[in-house]
Amino acid sequence: MGDMYKNAGVNLEEAASLNKKLCSKFNQPNFSEFVGGLEYNGIKIFSCTDGIGTKIIPLYERKLYKTIAVDLVAANLNDMATRNVKAIGFSDYIAVNKLDSDVVSKIIFELNAVLSQCNCELLGGETAEMPDLLKENCIDIAGFALGIGKTSSISINKGDIIVGLKSSGIHANGFSLIRKLYKENLLSEDEFAECLKPTFIYYNTVRKLWDKGLIKAGVNVTGGGLEENLSRISELKRLELYRQSIPCQPIYTKLAEIVGDEMQAVFNCGVGFCIFCTQENKEVVFKICKEFEPFELGRVLE
């Protein structure tokens, strides 16, 4: 694999090393899962946290506040959708160099509107003004989702299939590399604008599958690409993937020309979310998920 992503400032090998150290130290399976859970007084409580990486830079510069909100909700609630968990609350953290109450309030208003579409309540948040830490005209944002569920266990069997849901494009991963390519004029203005499209929020649709007992597990395809995110399901031993079935998107054709095989470990390559289900349930899963152009991505061999 090449070093273009590392040269853009992101070291995936060091990130993998950190995860290995944490998992070995704490012996905690939650550390590698998309959402962590615990039981308290008979209630199963789940939480997850995520931001939108350096995609925040061009979105903030272009005043795309609604996209900031959509991406932040997607980053967290798509993680929640990987298990049979209902998201009930959400908090935000916004860090700025200099506080602009008009801008920050617009982001929070948009965030509240997006969350309401997922029946998830904005509980509050924190805004930090840090001139000595952040550059001028810089902002960062993170979200924290709270959910409740019946169980965190999953049961995937040999012969189960993997249904892929199409991504809206790059989503909010790999943007340190995307921004570098754009600055070096390797991506056109139109191609860069395509990269800035809002992330698909799969949560509501996947919740319908959970409610109907049609899904065994889900995978949110984020940083690290398709195979690394699939590997986060510890129950899986061996898979067969049908990469040729992934819908073609022009941006990935262009990235393949520039980045080569490295793109497989950085971007979602057109797959935004994966669903594990039985072959018998495939037809109804496809019907419920038709908005995201579902396709059979693979099957469980072991």
Task: Describe this entry's structure for a reader.
The chain is α+β, with helices and mostly antiparallel strands and 302 residues long. The chain is 35% helix and 24% strand. Strands 1-2-5-3-4 form a five-stranded mixed β-sheet. Strands 7-9-6-10-8 form a five-stranded antiparallel β-sheet. The protein contains eleven helices and ten strands. The chain has two domains: 33-149, PurM-like, N-terminal domain (60s Ribosomal Protein L30, Chain: A, 2-Layer Sandwich); 161-300, PurM-like C-terminal domain (Phosphoribosyl-aminoimidazole Synthetase, Chain A, domain 2).
Concise summary:
Helix content is 35%, strand content 24%.
Low-pLDDT residue intervals, each spanning 5 or more residues:
none
Structure classification: alpha+beta
Number of domains: 2
Helix content: 25-40%
β-strand number = 10
Please tally the helical runs, counting DSSP H or I stretches of 4 or more residues.
11
Global morphology:
globular
Largest sheet: 5 strands, mixed
What's the pLDDT, averaged over the residues? Answer: 92
Report the order of strands and helices: HHEEHHEHEEEHHHEHEHEHE
- CATH homology superfamily of the largest domain: PurM-like C-terminal domain
- The largest sheet has its strands arranged as 1-2-5-3-4
Rg value: 19 Å
| CATH level 1 class label of the largest domain | Alpha Beta
Q: Architecture of the largest domain in CATH?
A: Alpha-Beta Complex
Strand content: 15-25%
CATH topology of the largest domain: Phosphoribosyl-aminoimidazole Synthetase, Chain A, domain 2
Alpha-carbon distance between the two ends: 27 Å
